[in-house]
Amino acid sequence: MTAAAVEGLRERANADPWLVHRGRFLDTTFLLEVGADQYLVQIHRGRVEAVHKGPLVMPRWSFALRAPAEAWAAFRQPVPPPGYNDLIGMAKMRALRIEGDQHPFMANLRYFKDLLALLRASSGGSR
Q1: Chain-centre distance of CA 122, in angstroms?
Q2: What CATH number should be reported for the domain holding residue 60?
Q3: Domain region containing 73
Q4: Quick one: pLDDT band at residue 1, thresholds 50, 70, 90?
Q5: What span, in angstroms and rounded, lies between the C-alpha atoms of 36 and 6?
């Protein structure tokens, strides 16, 4: 996954009114780890306020989504292989680690699934 794809997540997410509406009660910061690359994603009222690329020194986040670059590459395909089509599927395949306070993630699971589906090569989302 390229840095430009992740850094472009802010514009793509905020341009999707339904996604912003779905996350209207969500305020959190999470860490997205793609292999050795780290991104700190700040969300306020469903809008992606900022995406900071690492290296990060002592970042503060609620939860982290960590996976090897190869797993994210499979996830980003227009039609991902079985197990890589969904964040929970990736976790079940042990390709994705979910760490930290999982409450904001699980309470807003559909939001995060749709948000990260925006990273897919030819997709505007998975709704």
Answers
A1: 16
A2: 3.30.1050.10
A3: 3-117
A4: low
A5: 14
pLDDT digits (tens, 9 = 90+) for 82-115: 999 999 999 999 999 999 999 999 999 999 999 9
Please write the tens of the pLDDT for every residue from 18-34.
Answer: 999 999 999 999 999 99
Quick check: is 54 in a domain? yes
Number of domains making up the chain: 1
Closest CA to 62 of 121, 104, 20: 104
Is residue 21 in some structural domain?
A: yes
DSSP codes, 62-78: SEEEEE-HHHHHHHHSS
57 HSE (CA, 13 A, CB side): 0
The three-class DSSP label of residue 33 is strand
Q: Where are the alpha helices (DSSP H) in 2-123?
A: 3-7, 9-14, 17-22, 69-76, 87-92, 103-107, 109-117
Residue 124 maps to a domain: no
What are 24's two structure tokens?
A: 């209207």
Taking the C-alpha atoms of residue 81 and residue 44, their distance in angstroms, rounded to an integer, is: 32
Residue 127 counted as domain residue: no
